Amino acid sequence: MLVLRVSDVDDATARLAIHGATIVADPQDRPEWGPSLRTAHLRTSDGTLVELRS
Asked: DSSP characters for 14-28?
């Protein structure tokens, strides 16, 4: 899994989806993982799982 810190999870998710990534988990707040943490999970065309977090 590749974890990327981004400034806007929703925007990054939309941009990656436009370029062919499959959304596995929609953007959502994760207060149980950390204060003000938001994540999304996507899978690239080669199968790599990507976590976006802010």
From this structure: HHHHHTTPEEEEEEE
Which residue numbers in the chain have pLDDT < 50? Answer: none
Q: Is the dihedral of CA 18, 23, 29, 31 positive or negative?
A: negative
Beta strand pairing status for 38-43 and 22-29? antiparallel
Phi (first) and psi of residue 49, to 5 degrees: -85, 130
pTM for the model stands at: 0.91
Alpha carbons 19 and 29: distance in angstroms, whole number: 24
Residue 23 near residue 49 (C-beta atoms within 8 A): no
Q: How far is CA 40 from CA 21, 34, 50, in A?
A: 12, 14, 8
